[in-house]
Amino acid sequence: MRIVCPADLTEQVHLRLSRDPSVVNLVVLPSAVRNPDGDLIECDVLPGATNKVMREVRVLGVDLRGSITVDGVDLALSGRAERTQSRQLPVAVHTPLWELVESRIRADATYPPSFYLYLIIAGVIGAVGILSNSQILIVAAMVVGPEYGAIVAVALGIDTKHIRSVRRGMTALGVGFLLAIAAAFLFALTVRGAGLTPNAYELGIRPVSQLIDTPNLFSFVVAALAGVVGVVALAEARSSTLLGVFISVTTIPAASDCGVSMAFGSRTDAWGSLVQLLLNVVVLIVVGFLTLRVQRVLWRRVDRRNTRRIAGGSG
């Protein structure tokens, strides 16, 4: 942890850090930083104690007048650190740093033109998969779609009561999915007008489409489980698990099927796909919010128990 600390707060920060057995290799360099001017404080913090140390530093307002930077350490050999870590709860080493989790979510909560371009392309890929009954292309469309970042950002905005983030995320999702539906509609209309509709789809053999436009209990269960797994994976920075979430939820495929069904005059199928899309988005947001809230509560309890255990061992 690297802290740029205003000179008038250095003594308080140094005192708090030096008393914490989870903090090692503490270095203080007076007047070492410019822009903003301040003292440089560096230290290593054991996994499981980072949230507590971060709170103690931020409560003094250091981040408002200076800055706090956190980097992971791949290897550290320290007898003192090992003795302190041996007193920790075993599960404490997996405690997420919530500032880092939130910054990771907010990093994906930006909506440049490429966000909408990806949704449009994903919508067309999904339309091709539906017309050709290709499940592989449906999976490809799921992977290309960037909507999950916006969905989790909305869940975080609800959890932190940041209304602006919720509004921006919902607007991006609404506009993005409308563009994906429109792109799929225009593509399917072009295919139909050019007489290039695949024979199977023309004859009503549409297993992929029927799977998408018939929301049921299983759709709810998958969306709920994906919402839980997605937030946990974000907290633990498990990118491979997140990929599984992307190909589990029926958002882009539902948008594509809605557009294709409208192009072929299947209003019932289009309505079913729209319901599927709304169901998945709503469930993902609600479950994401609840998972974030529950995780915070559970890890806060682990943090308190871990702090007492370390303090008891050091005494």
Question: How would you sum up this structure, described in words?
Answer:
The structure is a single chain. By secondary structure, this protein is of the alpha+beta class. It has helices at residues 7-18, 50-58, 62-65, 79-86, 98-107, 113-131, 135-144, 147-160, 163-193, 199-202, 207-212, 217-235, 239-246, 252-263, 267-314, and strands spanning 2-5, 23-33, 38-45, 67-69. The protein has a four-stranded antiparallel β-sheet with strand order 2-3-1-4. A hairpin with a 4-residue loop joins strand 2 and strand 3 (38-45). The model has no long low-confidence stretch (mean pLDDT 90).
Describe the secondary structure blueprint for this structure.
Blueprint: E1 2-5, H1 7-18, E2 23-33, E3 38-45, H2 50-58, H3 62-65, E4 67-69, H4 79-86, H5 98-107, H6 113-131, H7 135-144, H8 147-160, H9 163-193, H10 199-202, H11 207-212, H12 217-235, H13 239-246, H14 252-263, H15 267-314
Antiparallel strand pairs: 1-3, 1-4, 2-3
Helix pairs in contact: 6-7, 6-9, 6-14, 8-9, 8-15, 9-14, 12-13, 12-15, 14-15
Entry keywords:
315 residues; alpha+beta; four-stranded antiparallel β-sheet; 15 helices; 68% helix; elongated
